[in-house]
Amino acid sequence: MKPVHGADIEAVVFDWGGTLSVWADVDAEDMWRLAARRLAPGREHELLRVLVALEKEAWDRVETDRRSTCLAELLATASAAVEVVVADAVLDEAAQCHLDSWAPHIRHREDAGCVLSSLRAAGLRVGLLSNTYWPRLFHERLLERDGLAPHIDAGLYTCEMGRVKPDPSVFRAALDALDVSDPARAVFVGDRLLDDVSGARAAGMRSVWVRNQVTPPYDVVPDAVVEALGELPGVLARWGVGHARV
Fold first, then answer.
1. Fewer CB within 10 A of the terminal residue: the chain, N end or C end?
2. Distance between CA 112 and CA 228 in Å, rounded?
3. With b meaning 16 or more CB within 10 Å and e meaning fewer, what string describes 147-162?
4. Same domain as 158, residue 204
5. What is the residue range of 47's domain?
6. Do residues 116 and 175 share a domain?
7. Which residues, 6+ apart, have CB-to-CB distance to 239 below 8 Å?
8. Helix, strand, or coil here: 89?
9. How far is 30 from 13, CA to CA, in rounded Å?
10. What's the CATH code of the domain at 151?
11. Which residues, in sequence order, are CB contacts of 113 under 8 Å at separation 6+?
């Protein structure tokens, strides 16, 4: 990666799940159950198995073709697989059932707001790049609920993009959204070694790994490792970036 002085860093981009938000230890079947019941009353268990399998396939694409998907596509594909014909309105209702199942389990790290505001105070642009099949509006409502939205200059969600991290195109899109022409002038912060750290480094960005023992290992060395988001301003300060503190 091209060397860069700390003062040249212009932006910090964050992953969302497991990074800004706390890792949620939930059962995938529980999160799909109400949606399956709404789509196919009487065939809930059959559809549930398909939805869980399709979600796993979607996440596995991180290691294969990196194609993204969205919630509506998952629900429509599952319905077609069990030969259930549903109206668009029912698909929308099933999607809302799924999101409603997740919402109570999602919380952001307690220090996330302080960290984001400190970076903005130091003159840095702040971005968000999430591998997700959930719609933008769902994420934005959660960010607004917990007071993080005002501190984020640009949010990008792979449900609206053709690929997922670690594909270089999504990192480039995040840099473009933050008006950063040189990737060496940006830092990416995430909890996944493959998606976040290796993707960022391949794109020419500095990488900070938020240590997470739940996520799969990967043979890559981040530029820095933190146990909590509150350590990030200190890492940046050692690199000569800003003077803000949490």
1. N
2. 9
3. ebbebbbbbbbbbebe
4. yes
5. 28-105
6. yes
7. 6, 9, 206
8. helix
9. 31
10. 3.40.50.1000
11. 146, 147, 148, 151
